User: What shape does this take?
Amino acid sequence: MSITQKYSEQELVSLLQQRQESSFGYLYDNYAGALLGVVGGIVADQETARDVLQEVFVNIWRKIELYDPAKGRLFTWMMNIARNAAIDKIRSKGYQDSLKNHSIPENADQNFPATGPQVDDVGLRKVLNQLKEEHRVLVDLSYFQGYTHDEISKALNIPLGTVKTRIRSALIHLRTLIKQ
Amino acid sequence: MNVQEYISSGIVESYVLGLASPEEQREFEQMSAQYPEVLEARIAFETSLEQQAMSNTIIPPPAFKAQVRAAVFLENQTQQAKVVTIDRGAPVVRTGWIKYAAAAAVILLAGSLFWNISLFNENNKLKTDYTAATGRLADLEKDMSTLMNPNVQMTAMKGLEASPASYTTVYWDSTAKSVFLLVNNLPKPASDKQYQLWAILDGQPVDLGMIDNQYLIGQRPLLLRMNNVSGAQAFAITLEKAGGNPKPEGPMYTLGNR
Assistant: This one.
């Protein structure tokens, strides 16, 4: 009979902060798939997504001392590290250059550089597709492509306040979809 | 704005998903410290987000774990070393890490150095081998072009009584009058002896030069360039004293008539 050790989030964080080597295995086994799902929603190429995932684990291990439980759950913190690393990757020069060899998707918005082929059935993206068009675009640009409200406002020529309001209501709708 | 309105404004989702501005973040952190409902709403959204992510996993290939582990711990060692050098007040426990990190670094360095040296040596050997091989190839190509010259005539020279297994071949260029000798087989002579090539012209032997004993051992040029001769009815090889004789004196090894 195999015994699978189960840590509470607090225990795991404390083991990670003590840099217990065994905690890496636990962290990886429990979260690699979910975090790759997060990265995969932003970076379509599987191999590149795995490179990003590796970077994510390096960052988690390196920055674990900065994790503050008062500000959010461990997974939320890791998910944001994954999202930031993925966005950094799709915006990197190397990745942008590699895209030049591919055709730009037909519906690409001319005001934003291409971020490559997208996967529609991965993680939050799946939920995103259930939003109405004007919400979908805004969540895509802000959450999945990392543009600031200001950048979106200028590029789409929509007032900043409207961008903000629409993103907020899109996120509220997103929450109800996630809960289902 | 009351707390309920605040909660349902989308700020919770914005904050959790990392889309809130720095001011909004500060405000939210303050609000969630002050109002348990806000904190509760945040945790509820985080939990459903985590559940959503956990049911939408992409499983990496099994071998990937070892790669990530290596990257994490390699990074960690250098990181620990950095922490210790910057933070003078670091707890004693950490010196254990730097010892390991330093030891690992020394081992890695030594290994890398050794590897570099062997790569360097191997590289040099390859260079030498390559030069030798291209030189040999150039020699063979030159011989080949001699053999393919339509003016070059071949004379096979068979072994005589002294050594029936001996065999040599002369290639004579009728235009340039140049003579090339191919030693197919000749026994190795004693060190004070040397083979000498002769052309027989109008019944008289003409000295065409000595065959260096070194050419009879190991790797040798295919064709030996001998002295020119205007013509010949036959070619012969005799074994003479080292340095040769003006007229053949020793036993004849091979002979070929044109």
